[in-house]
Structure formats: C-alpha cells, structure tokens
Specification:
Strand content: under 5%
Structural class: mainly alpha
Number of strands: 0
Largest sheet: none
Number of helices: 5
Radius of gyration: 21 Å
Helix content: over 70%
C-alpha cells in the first residue's frame, strides 16, 4: 500500500544503521541499532518491555530447573517472588509510558474525560 511504502521510505535510514559487515560478522542484525526509539518515552517503554520479557524468560528457566530436580522448591518460590516483583515494576513502567503516549496524543487543553452530562 502507499502508506506502507511512505513509512518504509521515511524510516529506511534505521535499516542502514547496520552495515553489511556488522551483520555478516555477527551473523544477524543488531536490533539495538535497527530499532530506534522516536523519543525518551518510547525509549523507556522499549527498555521496560525488554526487562519484562527477560523476567518471563527467567521464570521459565526457574520452572524448568525445579521440574528437573535441579532447584529446591523453596529456592524456586523465593526466586519467583523476586522475579514477579521485578515483572510488576516493568509492567507499571509500561503502563506509565502508555498513559504518557495517550496524553501526548490528546489535543492541547483536552483532558480526555467526558463527564456524565456529556461535557
């Protein structure tokens, strides 16, 4: 579609951030150079999302270790508690970033609320 072509043309420079030599040396694209946050709020949201996904990965590894008998149940439970606390922090930061993006999208002077009288 025309909109997709326009977006690709506008953001092509991001793909150019990774040279062919870097990609060949690493065997893959470096997402830290390809994915570029548009602003500070987006950068914070990306960082919180990455941390949240890392916590989920950690929880899966902990579960696998416990099921294989490599980790005691009490140690597993303590680590799950720690990781879930981190996860809730990350998700809170994501919520704050999402609210910030929504507020930024509102026209100036519009609080985004409609009262019961419709005003």
């Amino acid at each position: 579609s025309a909109a997709l072509e326009a977006w690709l043309n506008e953001h092509e420079w991001k793909a150019d951030a990774v040279t062919a030599a870097e990609a060949a040396a690493a065997g893959k694209l470096d997402v830290n150079k390809v994915v570029v946050a548009a602003d500070d709020l987006s950068r914070q949201a990306l960082a919180a999302q990455a941390e949240d996904l890392a916590v989920e990965d950690c929880l899966l590894v902990l579960e696998k270790a416990m099921l294989q008998g490599k980790l005691a149940a009490d140690v597993y439970m303590k680590q799950v508690c720690v990781q879930c606390t981190l996860c809730m922090r990350c998700r809170g930061l994501l919520l704050i970033a999402a609210c910030g993006c929504m507020c930024r999208a509102l026209p100036p002077g519009d609080a985004g609320w409609v009262d019961a009288a419709g005003g």
